[in-house]
Amino acid sequence: MPCEHRFINDLNPNGQLKYLFVGTFNPSWNRPQNDNANWFYGRQYNDFWFIMPQVFGQQSLMGRNFRTNRQYLMNWCTQQNIGLTDLITNIQDADIHNQLHNDIILSVNDNAFDKFTQIIPTDIQSTINQNANSLCGVYLTRYEHTLLADGIISNLWTTVKDTCYNLNINCHDLVTPSRQFRTLTRIQKLDNWTNTIQICT
């Protein structure tokens, strides 16, 4: 049984984008204790909605009434000309009855996706090309140096970077907002993002 993206219909954001944030994969398979996100980065152990809005001078949306409200977050992003997407749309050779596959897909180890051979990437290049005249920056929400060299995630991100380079669009990796990475506090991560993201003038 393939594992498609939990928000597969939202991977190609609409509207005129100024910023595009790129993650890796949010599986449709349910996590233990139903610890699933209602939308991108919506799990309680991810500080994306604390960090990202404040980079743009807005209030944190980390409160549960914001973070779990899919429609509110979608509308907020549209108003701010912000798009969210992930590198992977579907893992076709994933088997929900295979415990190893479950462990990989529900883990936070993106490098383990190389165990699969039938991965369908998201067409992020089309989104970038459609917004080439308005995009100020495209950002991967994890450090690039932590990716397996020549691995599936690294290669997909390289394709995105090359597209941005050819269009002269700023493109950079960011420290992950996940609390699994505890070396930096959420405030230090906010500083990192603020110093890295180029705000449109």
What layout of secondary structure does this protein have?
Blueprint: E1 3-4, E2 19-23, H1 48-55, H2 64-67, H3 70-80, E3 82-86, E4 88-91, H4 99-105, E5 119-121, H5 124-130, E6 137-140, H6 152-167, E7 170-173, H7 186-196
How would you characterize this protein structure?
InterPro entries: Uracil-DNA_glycosylase-like_sf. The model has no long low-confidence stretch (mean pLDDT 94). This protein has helices at residues 48-55, 64-67, 70-80, 99-105, 124-130, 152-167, 186-196, and strands at residues 3-4, 19-23, 82-86, 88-91, 119-121, 137-140, 170-173. Helix 6 links the parallel strand 6 (137-140) and strand 7. Helix 1 (48-55) packs parallel to helix 7. The longest helix is centred in the C-terminal third of the chain and has 16 residues, at 152-167. The relative contact order is 0.20. Helices cover 32% and strands 13% of the residues. The protein has a single domain, classed as Uracil-DNA Glycosylase, subunit E. It is of the alpha/beta class. Strands 3-2-6-7 form a 4-stranded parallel beta sheet. A 3-stranded antiparallel beta sheet has the order 1-4-5, with no helix packed on it.
